[in-house]
Specification:
It is built from 17 helices and 9 strands. With 467 residues, it is mainly α.
Amino acid sequence: MEIRVRIGPSPTGDPHVGTGYVSLFNYAFAKQQGGKFILRIEDTDQKRSSLESEQAILNSLKWLGINWDEGPDIGGPCGPYRQSERLDIYKKHIDMLLASGHAYWCTCTAERLAEVRKRQLALKQPTGYDGHCRELNHTSGVIRLKTPREGQTVFHDALRGEIKIENSEVDDQVLFKSDGFPTYHLANVVDDHLMRITHVIRGEEWISSTPKHVLLYRFFGWKPPEFAHLPLLRNADKSKVSKRKNPVSLDYFREAGYLPDALLNFLGLMAFSFEDGTEVFSLQDFVKNFKLERVSLGGPVFDLKKLLWLNGRYLREKRTDSQVVSYLQDQLFSTEYMSRIIPLVKERVEKSEDFIEYADFFFKGSVLVDPENYLIKGIDDKKKLIELYELLIERLENLRPFDVPNLETALRTFCEEQQIKSKDLFMPVRMMATGKKATPPLFDTLAVLGRERCRTRFRAALGELKK
């Protein structure tokens, strides 16, 4: 039996470091076993999916050196590798479930579902669909999984052993939406079966969904793959790693100048240790020494200090002087990046050394200044100020494309909504992004810095403000 594993990122935002982490462990397992590593784009959420995000995922994995055997840009024997191009397949399989009585139509409105949830919370009951439409003969709406009311669903996890979950705790999950697209649960199971996936290696946040998937395999009459749920990456306080407390976009680490092999090494250390204690290793070393049973389940802490230490080791020990020169030229002083900066600053400098002082914020990591510079005129309540910045940062994080017209529209619209004068907001935003009061035009500056640099600096400034 050929070992076949996959990852299925959703192109709904920036490429997440968790995608790199799970990809690494899947890739290592497949390559050591002489198997195949498949990349599948799970874009059934059409409202949030974008080609820009998809391309960013592909670029980030290529940058890390994790290459797939089947998938976008390569193809393979299993048909399209984008779920949006496999709708006929899912329609065929949902019809099978309806015919066998393992799924049913549901016409409950969002308002009714909200009331059900409100009532369940008030009665301190588990939240979930109450089965209102299970025995009704609707022929429109959404389609739900008809889960057993009694008994248990049992599955084996390669890292955790046997897991039992009461069927009463398994929701009648929506499998097919009214827009004609499947949800993750149906598409995931159908694709894994048709793509002959033998091992599903994914994050532990999917454990609670696995009974739904096991039931689907049973209802279709298919043998499920082996499951292995990796521990979540965590912040220092043990909470799930998130952009509010750490940079989580692979784009950030690339743009901040981290070496891809150092980042892969770091991600490998998150849940695996070499038997001899080796901490610095190549991708090839990781593949050669990888054993699924040696994956540690103790919540790995995403420690940026450790990553910085590793990156320094790689820079000093794994790169020649000429490679470091190339690295600096590519990361800090690339022709593309410099050509965007020079038009903004050349009218404001007299000689070359002036450029260093005037434009240093385009190259720095941290630009923190006194939090007094982040205050907004007319907002004296610190809690309100923090909430306002949280809202603004979230809006800018989701801005696509992150360019001058969109930035100007977003910031001016935000001022109108919050009834703030633009001059009272723009200066604090400038200080957060650059650490300086005198810079090139704000929107141009933010666009050149890019989403990831701005996101990181805004979050760091907000952290200072919260102290």
